[in-house]
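Entry 14: structure prediction run for Response regulator transcription factor. Input pasted below.
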Amino acid sequence: MPPPPTSATILCVEDERFLLDELEEELTARGYTVLTAMNGNEAEAIIKESHPDIVICDVMLPGRTGFRLLEELVATDSLPARTAFIFLTALSDRERQLTGLRAGAVDYLVKPVDLEILHLKIESALNFARKIRMTTTGDPVPSDVHLSRRETQVLALLGRGSRTGEIAAQLEISENTVSQYVKVIYKKLNINNRADAARLSIAMGLVSEQEHPDRP
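Run finished. Output tokens:
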């Protein structure tokens, strides 16, 4: 398999040094920029500073578990919306997998992992991120534009035609908070109305054409 056409940054979080070194060597050989951390605190600091494209994280970490790390990153809007979080762990039972996915992970892989499957999962996550960066004209969203995970959720719901009250109920936040998110989104994306938000949410791959109702 050839190296990725454009460089992407992957953070590997693993407390067993030999496994961490193996992951780093494998992903570096595929052309990725690889960052490493051995616990949740190190990982959180790197995520906030470097905004990696993908985080590959063990569950059983010293201090905070990987589940707790992801939950806290999402709760504080510290995980960039375009960062895909993938669990890679020896815990294979169904309930743990559900816990990881409910926390916000895009995938849950069990050790020992098939490396070809891992690379396909990575490519899939990166392709989705590229779609998010596209507008209807095919031009990329400026690289300095960053939507938090919560802002991305609000934008996606706007694209589906949801009103302020509906968004508030679904995300379990106040209508005033939704209104503040909408103002921030409009400013960041340089748009002025719900029609523009809907258009952009479709272009970014957050909403399909079929999901958007025929209304502004």
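Notes: The longest helix spans residues 115-132. Will compare against the previous run tomorrow.
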